[in-house]
Automatic annotation (TrEMBL), chain A:
Belongs to the sigma-70 factor family. ECF subfamily. Signal peptide: none annotated. InterPro entries: RNA_pol_sigma-70-like, RNA_pol_sigma-70_dom, RNA_pol_sigma70_r2, RNA_pol_sigma70_r4_t2, RNA_pol_sigma_r2, RNA_pol_sigma_r3/r4-like, WH-like_DNA-bd_sf. It comes from Mesonia mobilis. This is DNA-directed RNA polymerase sigma-70 factor. The keyword Transferase does not apply.
Length: 188, 248
């Protein structure tokens, strides 16, 4: 019952926000902004830049709210907008590079990957250490659930490149994270 | 399987995370939204102005087209209404001449009423004023005497002019353009009645202004004058004959 009520409230808020009701827009923002800032932070290293990306994303959400069809979840729709906005930001910064040489550099970086306090913060730190090309493909595939075909379109690369970048990113991240986890679990 | 588990763990950890944005973030977003909405409303405002301008042009052109057609209707209305105005003018002129024919004027004022009444009623109304007018005129003629001969001629001329005007306005051709066949017959009857009334009124006016007694008095005066003149001329001619014969 509570879930249905929340869904109806969300629909009302969306309708009001479509009519440029500032309070409704604010309540939608307050509901989804923490999650969406987390999404933006996955792709953008600096929190301030991530927040700017999130605000741009919300701007697009409220301007194009009339194009939202209540077929999928509203959160999923906002999330997709945020991801695209984050990738556009990375492109504008020319940080998305796909090369084989970067693998060795990141491997060197993984040597200094232990000692973080919170597990998620540690994970984020290790993700941030990944090259931008690896990180984007891994996050789009593993976290957002996109297929290689879609990732290839989004990043203007071939499907093969997307697959190879994913496998390399996964390997590198495992190398960075797994020893830390084993230490934590062994300690308990 | 190990790969999938690794991906799932990372996904779960990252999706569960929430990062609170800074306090000024919403204010910044709200300000940007207001700017965006103002721009969009300005666009719609200009579109509205352009649409209203085009609408105004269309409406004015439509009215101008209508006005070009309307004058034909106005002409027809004037041709029909003109006789009524003329009748009123005739009445006004007659009132200004201080003729005590109130009952006769009533006959003229009633053509609209006569449309519904029987034809015999107006005739009775007309006959009464003749007798009344003779009585009234007999009193007036004693005071006015001979000085009325010249005004009577002017009144006769005016009466004839009015008669011609009425006949010209009451031509059936003018009415045939606007009325249906049944209405034409009624109109023709009414016009005939009106003509008869005007003729009778003019006839009554003529004799009312002259009157029998007035004429008799005039004739007597003229006869008296002629007799005196005859005597005078006879004496004068006799005097000249005597004078000539004496000279000869």
């Amino acid at each position: 019952m509570k879930v249905i009520q929340l869904h109806q409230n969300e629909k009302r808020l969306i309708k009001k926000a479509m009519k440029k009701d500032r309070k409704a827009q604010q309540s939608l923002y307050e509901t989804y902004s923490p999650k969406m800032l987390s999404v933006c932070r996955m792709y953008v290293k600096d929190l301030q830049f991530a927040e700017d990306v999130m605000l741009k994303g919300f701007m697009k959400v409220f301007v194009n709210l009339s194009s939202y069809k209540a077929e999928g979840s509203f959160e999923g729709w906002i999330r997709r907008i945020m991801v695209r906005e984050a990738i556009d930001f990375l492109r504008s910064q020319k940080k998305v590079q796909f090369s084989e040489e970067l693998e060795n550099d990141s491997a060197l970086a993984s040597e200094n990957s232990f000692g973080s306090v919170e597990e998620v913060d540690f994970l984020q730190q290790k993700i941030d250490e990944l090259p931008e090309g690896y990180k984007a493909v891994f996050m789009l595939y593993a976290v957002e659930g996109y297929k290689h075909q879609e990732i290839a379109k989004m990043l203007n690369i071939s499907e093969g490149t997307s697959k190879s970048q994913l496998s390399k990113a996964r390997k590198l991240l495992q190398q960075k994270v797994e020893p830390h986890r084993k230490e934590n679990h062994g300690g308990r | 399987m190990a790969v999938d588990n690794f991906d799932k763990k990372i996904k779960q950890q990252l999706e569960a995370r929430k990062i609170e944005p800074s306090a000024r973030a919403w204010d910044q977003l709200a300000a940007e939204l207001e700017v965006k909405e103002e721009k969009s409303t300005k666009k719609y405002w200009w579109l509205g102005i352009a649409a209203s301008f085009l609408g105004g042009i269309l409406i004015t052109s439509f009215f101008f087209n209508q006005q070009q057609v309307e004058p034909v209707k106005v002409v027809n209305q004037n041709t029909i209404e003109a006789p009524k105005n003329k009748l009123v003018e005739v009445e006004a002129e007659e009132n200004s001449q201080e003729i005590n024919n109130n009952e006769e004027l009533n006959v003229v004022e009633k053509p609209s009423i006569a449309e519904t009444e029987n034809k015999t009623q107006p005739e009775i109304e007309i006959e009464k004023p003749v007798l009344a007018s003779v009585d009234n005129s007999s009193v007036e003629t004693k005071n006015r005497a001979q000085s009325k001969v010249i005004p009577q001629k002017k009144e006769e001329q005016k009466a004839q002019e009015i008669k011609f005007e009425l006949e010209s306005y009451s031509s059936p051709k003018q009415l045939a353009q606007t009325k249906t066949p049944s209405a034409e017959e009624e109109a023709a009857q009414l016009l005939d009645d009106a003509r008869e009334r005007v003729k009778i009124r003019n006839f009554n006016n003529y004799y009312n202004r002259i009157s029998a007694q007035n004429l008799l008095e005039n004739i007597e005066v003229e006869d008296k004058q002629s007799f005196k003149e005859k005597v005078f001329y006879a004496l004068e001619s006799g005097f000249h004959r005597v004078k000539n014969s004496v000279i000869e």
